[in-house]
Amino acid sequence: MNMLLLMILRIITSLAVIIAGGAKLMRAKPLVAQFYDFHFSLEIMYLIGAVEIVGALALWIPGLTLWAFSGLVCL
Fold first, then answer.
1. What is the pTM of this model?
2. What contacts 24+ positions apart, CB below 8 Å, involve 48-54?
3. What does the CA dihedral 53, 74, 11, 7 come to, rounded to 10 degrees?
């Protein structure tokens, strides 16, 4: 039961983070406006989007799962 719960959590988390990172990399208009409101450049938005996608993929590498979850929480 614990492994099933962990797998479901991993799937939901990775899908949500991939969608969020992909939206940043595809320059979704609301996100661009939000980053401009915070006085961040688009390069920072691209960097965060790429880090989110790499973190979501790292969730599936057995040795990096805990580190990936920790890193994504910090984002």
1. 0.85
2. 48/21, 48/24, 48/75, 49/20, 49/21, 49/22, 49/23, 49/24, 49/25, 50/21, 50/25, 51/21, 51/75, 52/17, 52/18, 52/20, 52/21, 52/24, 53/17, 53/18, 53/21, 53/22, 53/25
3. 140
> How remote is the C-alpha of 10 from its chain's centroid?
12
pLDDT of residue 65: 86
| Block mean pLDDT (10 aa), the chain, length 75 | 88 94 95 94 95 94 89 87
Q: Collapsing DSSP states into helix, strand and coil, what is residue 72? A: helix
